[in-house]
Structures are given as structure tokens and as C-alpha cells.
Specification:
With 282 residues, the chain is an alpha+beta fold. The protein folds into 2 domains: 142 residues, Methane Monooxygenase Hydroxylase, Chain G, domain 1 (Up-down Bundle); 97 residues, no CATH class. It has 5 helices and 9 strands; from the N terminus they run αααβαβββββββαβ. The strands form 3 sheets. Strands 4-1-9-6 form a 4-stranded mixed β-sheet. It has a 3-stranded antiparallel β-sheet with strand order 5-8-7, with no helix packed on it. Strands 2-3 form a two-stranded antiparallel ribbon. Strand 2 and strand 3 form a beta hairpin. Helix 1 packs antiparallel against helix 2, helix 1 packs parallel to helix 3 and helix 2 packs antiparallel against helix 3.
Amino acid sequence: MKKLFIFVACALCLGACNTTGNQEAAQQERDSLQRIINEKDMELDDIMGTFNEVQEGIRRINEAEGRVTIADGNPESASSREVIRENMAFIQQAMQQNREMIAQLQEKLKNSSIKGTKMQKTIENLQRQIDTQNARIQELEASLAEKDALIEAQGDAIAGLSNDVAALTEENKAKTEKVQQQDKELNSAWFVFGTKNELKEQKILTKGDVLKSGDFNKDYFTKIDIRYDKDLKFYSKSAELLSTHPAGSFQLTKDKQGQYELHITDPQKFWSVSKYLVVLVK
């Protein structure tokens, strides 16, 4: 009986040991499966994170493209050109980032334990979106370059016209000044008054003749404009016109102090014989 008891007890112990071993093996298998699941989840999260970043990049590029299109409606504006430059620079940078992230997605999927064809097709569809967007951006760049060239050509043409206008303006100014100078010369006359000795010293009066000497001192005369200078004062109580001027074109009178002054009543007639007026005073 004692031997039987010992046998049964051994059998029970052996059964208990087998049960414990099976439980430990099952737990290890569950832990291994959980690690695999966790790793796949991490891989999938990583892939989907990159995927979402690419989609966000595509969305932001579309927005920037829209801003460029709106600004392109007024390409001559300085603010519009600045908007276009800033957004095109952003688009180029975002496109490059998207290309790099797509390459990362392809590499991650290649090395991943996730071998789903659906994921591969999703990435291929994303690549097609980027390719379509890239083609559209290239067309936009070509259009902008064409408009830039047209604006530059227009700018050159305008600059050429501005130069022509400036040259014509300068030419007209020179002509106007020349005409004014000629007009001034045509309406210029010179007068002098002095004693007999003073006039002789300046060779204006030579042997009783007026302005016969070719080297009389012209600087001794005062220049006037016959259109405006019609009243001349001689500051003397004795005055005699020695140069020839038509009668009826002037009046020689005295002021309140009894000093002579000349009033030219018909300038064209008065200066028609000579543009030099010589008056003898005492």
C-alpha cells in the first residue's frame, strides 16, 4: 500500500510539471507574437506618417500654386512679382522634399515585413499625383518665364522710348533756347550817353562822326531789349541824339528835375536804322 501511494504521488508531480512547462511555452509564444505585432504596428505607423507628410506637402504645393496663379493675373505689379517669386521658391523646395519622402517610402516598404500590394498601389498612386503636379508646375514655370521675357522686352522697349523722348526733349529744349537766344538778339539794342570827351575816348565819336571807327568800345554801351526798354533816362539837362533814328518814333522830354529822358513810342521804327543809340550830354 505504501508503495502504491508513492507511485501515485510521483505521477501527480510529473503531471504538474508538464502543465507548468506547457503554460510557460504558451506565454513565450504569445510574447513573441505580440512583439511581431508591435513591430509591424511601428513599421505601419512610420510608413503612414511619411505618407501623410507627402499628402500634406501636395496640399501645400496646390495652395502655393493657386497663389501664384492669382498673382500672375497682374504680373507687372511689384507686389505680385514678389508673391510669385516667394511661392515658386516654396514649391521647388516642397517638390524636392516630396520626391525624397517618396523614395523613403519605397525603401521602407521594400525593407518592411509588411508586403501588402494595397500599400504598394497607394504609394504608386501618390507618386502619380506628384508626377502630375510636377508636370503642371513645369508648365507654370514655362508660362511665367515667357511672361517674364515679354515684360523684359516691354521694359526694354519702354526704356528705349523713354530715351528717345528724353533725347527729343533735350533737342527741343536746345532748339527752344536757340530760338529764344536768336529772338533776344533780334530784339537787342545798345545805347550810350556821355560828354563829347567821353565819347571820343571810347572812339564812339571820331572827328564829328558817330560810330565811324570800326574799333569803338562796344563794352561802353548798355544792352537793352527793345520790346520792354522804351524809357531811357540821361540824368542831364542837356541831351542830343547823335545816332540816326526816324522822326515820329520817339519823344525827348524833361522830367520834373529838368533832366532829359527818351520815350520810344515806336520801337520797331526807332531801331530800324541802327541798333545803336548815341546821346551827347553835358
